[in-house]
Amino acid sequence: MLLVISFLVYLGLELAPGDAVSHMISPELASTITAEQLNAMREAYGLNQSFLTRYWLWLTSMIQGDMGYSMAGGVAISEIMAKTIPATLELSIVALIFSTIIGCSLGVISALKRGSGTDNSLTVAGMAGVSIPEFFFGLVAILLFAIELRWLPVGGRLLPHYETVWDRIPNIVLPSMVLALMMTAGAMRYARSSMLDVLSREFITTARSKGMPEWRINILHGFRVALTPVVVLIGFRLPLLIGGSTIIEQVYQWPGIGSMFIRSVRASDYPLVMTISLMYVFVVLTASLVIDILTALIDPRVRLGKE
Amino acid sequence: MSDKNDIALSVRNLKTFFYTNNRCNKAVNGVSFDVKKGKTLCIVGESGCGKSVTAATIMQLLPTLSRIEEGEIIFQKDDKKINIEKLEKNGKEMRSIRGSDIAMIFQDPMTALNPVYTVGFQISENLKYHTNLNKKQIREKCISLLSDMGIPLPEKRVDEYPHSYSGGMRQRAMIAMAMACNPKILIADEPTTALDVTIQAQIFELMDRLKKENDTAIILITHDMGVVAELADNVAVMYMGNIVEAGTADDVLRRPTHPYTKALLESVPVLGRGKDQEINPIKGSTPDPYNRPVGCQFAPRCNWKTESCDVMPEIEQINETHQIRCHKYEQFFESYNGKRDT
């Protein structure tokens, strides 16, 4: 799987116009530089070799754990990753936690108060959340909270004068909230319908016939069963979260992998693009594994082959 | 009449209506009956006649679009009389009765158990809310309940999930759950419809044993006349939200006096008479609940219909136990049975 995708990405990069060298040269220089000089540069970077040879070289070194160097800056890619991954993880995890908790609870509330004003307004908000693109929310949020109200910083992650973890919280609030928004809306819609489905099942009546209080019926018997499909959905949406973080990181100047990815694609920085896209693929594959494990934990019917 | 103290639950002129799309479905329209301690009352009738709604009304487990319109449900709790219809639907008092004094078994054991909890956990919930037992005692009680129900290896089975139980075992687990707090009344809403015949017999045997051991009153809802003949002490026949005939099992099954009861009994095929036997299904189908006939509800399908049937007949007492709601019952009864001897 990883192999196929890596090849396709490499092919895509090859087909894209321009190469790393043409991006390295500033426009002023481009008018004076000679064709020989350009070719020499290409040779120095190994770009004159055939596509398949380059792919093979890259692949073998990758398997050996050597991610290579960025063509744009000459920095080791492992170093770039070490700097950017924590930033993106921080953002995504905060967003994931928020969207899951808020999405599920709003969905459950919505289902329990079905047909009421609360339910209707949440439904409308959910639709809006799903359909309006994130960068728009991002910009609106900057305008409102950072520029008009001045509650929160416009962007960035770490500033030199920050000492404790608490100093960093204001910076993460806006980007993580905006990133969480779309996931929240989706989780909410899904939690609502799943919950409604479960509440109409017969075992809810059984639970009620045992004389238990409503909250216990709704949470223990209702939500617990409704949770399984919601977890699966959230898992499948993880790629969306990553895709979203690419955009949000741009909007908020968040020094994460997403913004690094965009920069590297613009610069045709093969090694960096390859490493990052492989990492994305890896995350998606891991996510589906994690979902499988989680579903088995939540739903005993999935636990098969256990004696 | 029998001793008043024997009565565990008494329903008087109960009316439960459903409201959908601005229309009113009078699902239960003036039902009265008594359930005696340690006796089984069978409520029989076609689909949609209001049997299950009656049961749900007693438990106050009605869906939101319906409500108790009129009537009384009097539950005899020790020496106190409790009017169930006056209690708040999911209030504390109603909840303390539900599951401990009045318990219910549902039609389909496949869907009535929560798939994500162990059977033991689901039985223990009942005990947790209605008894003061501690965790260890609850667990022991769960195991002993399961073994009472004839489930093999209860110590192991108690920690298993419903999906590893067979249909019959699930229904046993349901009964274990219902019997956990020794209820005074057990309502069984077609408990064996989803099970095959051999399991049916086992389940009914089990219920009968529990009734005798614990003096539990059972309300058994069914449309299986064979089951009625087997288990019932008393029978109430319902049609379109009314009881049309009620009495002891002997009264109703041996001397059916309402044309509908008679027709129900005649429409049951008898084992051993072969495939060519004549069975007489009731002609026509149940009327649209939104467009009821005036007067006797059965009149449009009845061979004995006369003009007087345009007025709803009142319940009449034939003898001490036997009640009938029909204008023509005397002529009808004589027509196939000669003069009544009682």
Brief summary:
The complex is a heterodimer of chains A (307) and B (342). Chain A has 307 residues and is mostly helical. Chain A has helices at 2-15, 20-24, 27-30, 35-45, 51-63, 77-112, 117-131, 134-148, 165-199, 202-209, 214-236, 238-251, 257-266, 270-298.
Tell me what portion of residues of chain A adopts beta-strand conformation.
Answer: under 5%
Derived from helix and strand composition plus strand pairing, the structural class of chain B reads alpha/beta
Task: Output the number of helix runs of chain B.
Answer: 12
Oligomer: heterodimer
Mean pLDDT of chain A: 78
Give a quick account of the main beta sheet of chain A: strands, pairing sense, barrel closure: none
Secondary structure category of chain A: mainly alpha
Q: Could you give the count of β-strands of chain A?
A: 0
Give the strand tally of chain B.
12
Largest interchain contact:
A-B, 21 and 30 residues
Low-confidence stretches of chain A: none
What does this structure look like?
The complex is a heterodimer of chains A (307) and B (342). With 307 residues, chain A is an all-alpha fold. Chain A contains 14 helices and no strands. In chain A, helix 8 (134-148) crosses helix 9 and helix 8 (134-148) packs across helix 12. With 342 residues, chain B is an alpha/beta fold. Helix content of chain B is 32%, strand content 24%. Chain B is built from twelve helices and twelve strands. In chain B, strand 4 and strand 5 form a beta hairpin. The relative contact order of chain B is 0.13. The model of chain B has no long low-confidence stretch (mean pLDDT 85). The chains are: A mainly alpha (307), B alpha/beta (342). The interface between A and B is medium-sized, with 21 and 30 residues.
